[in-house]
């Protein structure tokens, strides 16, 4: 393996993929259950209703995870640094005032230099899992429309 090339499938990346997939399945399951028990439908449930609920569950979960990726990407660019610094400074100055007052690097410039020194990346695992869920939702949506009776 070359020294300049980084491994893509590291242990941390695989773990984050599994965690994101588990969270996505949990969210999709909650959406499906909310639709299933929130709607009045005859027993047993029809195939097109089941496919519609699955399309909603997987599609909405994929879109929600994609929005979390966008927030992760924006955060990696440093957009929320001032917000985090203000909350951090507020609590630090209230609960450890003497230590905070004696810290020579308590200003925002020093904080920003420390944050920018470390490499911050968006969580790519969220994007990959969201694409999988969006395509699964589209697959269920195609199945839903294929089972509908023709309009005459």
Q: What would you say about this model in short?
A:
With 152 residues, this protein is mainly α.
Commentary on this structure:
This protein is mainly alpha-helical. It has 6 helices and no strands. The chain has helices spanning 11-38, 47-76, 81-95, 97-102, 108-117, 124-147.
What descriptors fit this protein?
152 residues; elongated
Question: How many E-type strands?
Answer: 0
The percent range for helix content is over 70%
The N- to C-terminal Cα distance equals: 63 Å
Counting helices, strands and paired strands, the structural category is mainly alpha
Shape: elongated
Order of helices and strands: HHHHHH
Classify the beta-strand content into a percent band: under 5%
Instruction: Compute the average pLDDT.
Output: 84
Q: Please, how many helices?
A: 6
Task: Determine Rg (CA atoms, Å).
Answer: 23 Å
Largest sheet: none
Tell me the layout of helices and strands.
Elements: H1 11-38, H2 47-76, H3 81-95, H4 97-102, H5 108-117, H6 124-147
């Amino acid at each position: 393996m070359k020294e300049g090339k980084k491994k893509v499938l590291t242990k941390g990346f695989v773990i984050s993929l599994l965690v994101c997939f588990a969270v996505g399945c949990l969210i999709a399951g909650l959406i499906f259950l909310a639709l299933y028990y929130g709607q009045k439908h005859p027993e047993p449930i029809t195939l097109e209703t089941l496919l519609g609920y699955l399309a909603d569950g997987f599609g909405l979960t994929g879109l929600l995870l994609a929005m979390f990726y966008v927030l992760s990407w924006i955060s990696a660019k440093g957009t929320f640094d001032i917000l985090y610094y203000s909350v951090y400074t507020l609590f630090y100055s209230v609960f450890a005032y003497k230590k905070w007052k004696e810290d020579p690097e308590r200003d925002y410039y020093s904080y920003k230099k420390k944050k920018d020194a470390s490499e911050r990346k968006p969580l790519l695992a969220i994007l990959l899992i969201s694409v999988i869920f969006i395509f699964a939702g589209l697959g269920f949506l195609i199945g839903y429309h294929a089972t509908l009776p023709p309009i005459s």
